[in-house]
Amino acid sequence: MNEVAVQGKKYGFIFIDHWHGYQATIDAAELARKLLVDGGFVMFHDFLDPGNADRRHVYGVYQAVLDRIVDDDRFSFAGVSGCCAIFQYSGVQEAR
C-alpha cells in the first residue's frame, strides 16, 4: 500500500487482509484514504473475528477500524460480508 500511495495510484475497491494487529490496521486505514477514489470502497477482513474481543489476542482490527474509519465523516458503513466490514469513501470531510 505504501508503494502505490507514493506512486499516486487510486482504486475503487481495496481489500485489506494483512497482519491483524491494531497499529497495522490503523496504518492500512490511513493509507486507504490516500488510495481510494471518491465513492470507492474498502473492506477489512476479520473485522468480526472473535479474536478482536479477547484482549490477550493479537487482533485489533475491530477497534482500529472504529478509531480510524467509523469516526471519519468521509466513510460510511456499507455492510458486512462474512467476517468483513465494508465502508464507502466520499472523499469530502464534513465540517464539525
Tell me what the structure shows.
It is a single chain. This protein has 96 residues and is an alpha+beta fold. The protein contains three helices and four strands. It has helices at residues 2-6, 22-35, 61-70; strands at 11-16, 36-44, 75-81, 84-89. The longest helix is centred in the N-terminal third of the chain and has 14 residues, at 22-35. The mean pLDDT is 91.
Largest sheet: 4 strands, mixed
If you compute it from the alpha carbons, what radius of gyration comes out, rounded to the nearest whole angstrom? Answer: 13 Å
Shape: globular
Strand order of the largest sheet: 1-2-4-3
**End-to-end Cα distance:** 29 Å
Name of the CATH homologous superfamily? Vaccinia Virus protein VP39
pLDDT averaged residue by residue: 91
| Low-pLDDT runs | none
What's the order of the H and E elements? Answer: HEHEHEE
CATH architectural arrangement:
3-Layer(aba) Sandwich
Layout of helices and strands:
Blueprint: H1 2-6, E1 11-16, H2 22-35, E2 36-44, H3 61-70, E3 75-81, E4 84-89
Parallel strand pairs: 1-2
Antiparallel strand pairs: 2-4, 3-4
Helix pairs in contact: 2-3
Features:
Rossmann fold; globular; 96 residues; 30% helix; 4-stranded mixed β-sheet; alpha+beta
In short:
Helices cover 30% and strands 29% of the residues.
